[in-house]
Design goal:
Order of helices and strands: HHHHHHH
Structural class: mainly alpha
Strand content: under 5%
Largest sheet: none
Distance between the termini: 96 Å
Length: 230
């Protein structure tokens, strides 16, 4: 009895539809775990790069030097450094055109940083929707496999004159394995999605704060440049 109700025997004894559902859920679970670990390492790298650049930014290094380093290290830069480079690039272009209105220059730099900010947040949020889909859909896919398996089990019992718990249990157990696999795929995806969504919100808030602080620095530089001739 124990051998007949082992997990392997239940999977092998299930109908082909339930087996197909189980296989689909296992593949989705593997892909979900790959996305979880990939996002975990990606977010750690983003946080580390942002912290390193923020430390350099507030260390007293000149903006031109930081911009030169950002341009040279563009492929390996973090989101905050790329946002800084976008704002600084637009700032220098508008200054080279000798635009006298400080508001126009500052507004152009802010728009460039906002556009870069949206690109960076979209990149950080990649694969997050996949985890949300796995967390919400997998239990229902598993439930479909269970319902189908139970229907199949009762159809097979229709020809029997005497039905006991021993004859019903294997078919129902086979069907319930699909729900168990669906939950196994969904629960880690939901937990990871909530954790990553909270971490990404913190990263986004930190980037928005940097945009405001850097805008204030540019505004002070523009005010000093306008007041210098007088």
């Amino acid at each position: 009895m124990n051998q007949d109700l082992s997990i392997l025997q239940l999977v092998l004894g299930a109908s082909w539809v339930v087996q197909l559902v189980m296989l689909l859920l296992v593949v989705v679970s593997v892909a979900s775990w790959a996305a979880i670990f990939g996002k975990l390492f990606s977010l750690r790298r983003v946080k580390s790069l942002n912290e390193d650049f923020e430390r350099d930014f507030w260390s007293g290094t000149s903006l031109n030097e930081l911009f030169a380093n950002a341009a040279q290290n563009a492929r390996h830069a973090g989101p905050m450094e790329r946002i800084f480079a976008s704002g600084m690039r637009e700032y220098q272009k508008l200054r080279e055109r000798r635009i006298q209105d400080p508001g126009t220059v500052l507004d152009g730099a802010r728009r460039a940083m906002r556009a870069s900010y949206q690109r960076e947040v979209d990149a950080v949020e990649s694969h997050l929707s996949f985890l949300a889909s796995v967390g919400s859909v997998s239990p229902y896919v598993g439930l479909f496999g269970t319902v189908w398996g139970i229907m199949h089990a009762f159809t097979g019992l229709a020809s029997l004159t005497q039905v006991t718990l021993a004859t019903v249990a294997p078919g129902i157990a086979e069907a319930l394995v699909a729900t168990a696999i669906g939950l196994f795929a969904a629960i880690p995806a939901v937990v990871a999605y909530n954790r990553f969504a909270r971490d990404i919100d913190r990263v986004a808030i930190r980037l928005e704060t940097f945009i405001e602080e850097f805008s204030n620095i540019l505004q002070r530089n523009l005010s000093a440049a306008v007041a210098a001739p007088h």
